[in-house]
Design brief:
Length: 402
């Protein structure tokens, strides 16, 4: 693994490494690993598994990964799956998870020879590790209002999040609304917005094939990619499809909403999750891209959508609901507060073809917001705190006497 001089080793706790939905957890970890030694530790989700076949399969895969040990990430660092029981609502389970996690992480520190590492948590439910695994410092990278995720135990997750915030040496948040709350609990909180893989998504503007499942669609294509979850307004999307039957609405991403709660229209296509590598190819066919956030949902109000930057990096027009973070792009994206405004903005976007100049203007808006630049800022802040703590530790070990 490459090591940058002066960069501490990192134990990075994130979500599933192999997930099709590539999040900031994956991007930041990859960038940090090019600058320092890093081990990626997969953690269980915050939501307790239900009785669905998908949840059962995921649980079986997780258990298998736990017992197989470390595997290659394909990006130059190992991935280890942490064994945890995903039933956070029970105090006895939380106590058992803490015991198991602390033993496992201490073993990892010893196995990889990580002396005084950084524990970097992109999940809130490992705050109990802080101060107990021989780390030099703890970083909490908070990308969402986790207690607002549908299906989680709100009180348990909120308590974990508050503890992680309070006990960490450094906290990063991705949105201004999260920043205000976190700084009140921990003054060492910094804003670290999402980035974007500019080169990857710019491929949407280059000639190439269009995926077979949308190649035969006629008319303008209104595109979306991301999780199909409750914090998006699918009722509005169904209404849009009724209002513009000559358009095709293509929704890409894992469906987390019960099928009977999704609208059914002949021109509305929920195509499921797609590999990250294929998203620009789908973007070639988009006449416009949408972020139909629900303004009444707490999760959406605190979210900083990666897809805003990814859409712009593809050069396509963007229409989004006016959440606080989306409003930061009011100079380049069309924002709406009602379904009628949303439709009017889509009409204007579809009427105008995507010219090279307009595409370039959108792409230029996010050209400097790369994951590399985000990781550089994160690592600079981590090094500063790490060095200060090391200096303080040495001073305590070797006091001067006068």
């Amino acid at each position: 693994m490459p090591t940058a001089q002066g960069s501490p080793p990192i134990l990075y706790f994130g979500n599933d490494w192999s997930a099709d939905n590539r999040t900031s957890s994956h991007h930041i970890a990859t960038q940090l690993a090019s600058r320092c030694r890093l081990v990626y530790v997969e953690c269980p989700g915050l939501r307790a598994p239900g009785g669905s076949k998908r949840d059962a399969g995921k649980l079986v895969r997780k258990l298998g990964a736990c017992f197989r040990g470390a595997r290659d990430s394909g990006a130059g660092f190992p991935v280890v799956t942490l064994f945890q029981l995903p039933f956070h609502r029970y105090r006895s389970v939380r106590a058992l998870n803490q015991f198991l996690a602390q033993r496992a992480v201490r073993a990892l520190v010893q196995r990889y020879g990580f002396r005084k590492p950084v524990i970097h948590m992109a999940v809130p439910h490992l705050s109990h590790l802080i101060g107990r695994v021989g780390e030099q410092m703890a970083v909490y990278y908070c990308v969402d209002d986790y207690s607002a995720i549908p299906g989680v135990n709100v009180d348990a997750v909120r308590a974990m999040d508050e503890e992680a915030t309070r006990k960490s040496d450094l906290v990063f948040v991705v949105s201004e609304t999260l920043l205000q709350a976190k700084q009140a609990a921990n003054p060492n909180t910094q804003l670290s917005p999402h980035g974007v893989d500019v080169t990857h998504f710019a491929a949407a503007r280059k000639p190439g094939p269009v995926p077979a499942d949308i190649a035969s669609l006629n008319g303008p294509v209104i595109g979306y990619f991301g999780l199909v979850e409750q914090w998006m307004d699918w009722e509005m999307v169904g209404w849009l499809a009724v209002q513009r039957p000559q358009w095709q609405f293509v929704m890409l991403g894992r469906v987390g909403v019960p099928q009977d709660r999704l609208p059914v229209r002949p021109n509305l296509h929920f195509l499921g999750k797609k590999p990250y590598a294929e998203l620009p190819a789908y973007g070639r066919r988009f006449s416009a891209a949408i972020i139909p956030s629900r303004l009444d949902h707490r999760f959406a109000q605190h979210a900083s959508p990666l897809k805003m930057r990814e859409y712009l990096a593809m050069g396509v027009p963007v229409v989004a609901m006016a959440t606080p973070e989306n409003c930061k792009f009011a100079d380049i994206a069309a924002l709406a507060k009602t379904r009628e405004q949303f439709l009017a903005s889509l009409d204007r976007a579809v009427e105008r073809s995507i010219t090279p100049d307009e595409a370039e203007r959108r792409m230029a808006r996010v050209a400097d917001q790369t994951w590399e630049s985000r990781a550089n800022a994160v690592l600079t802040a981590v090094r500063d705190v790490y060095s200060a703590k090391e200096l303080a530790r040495k001073h305590q070990c070797h006091p001067s006497f006068t």
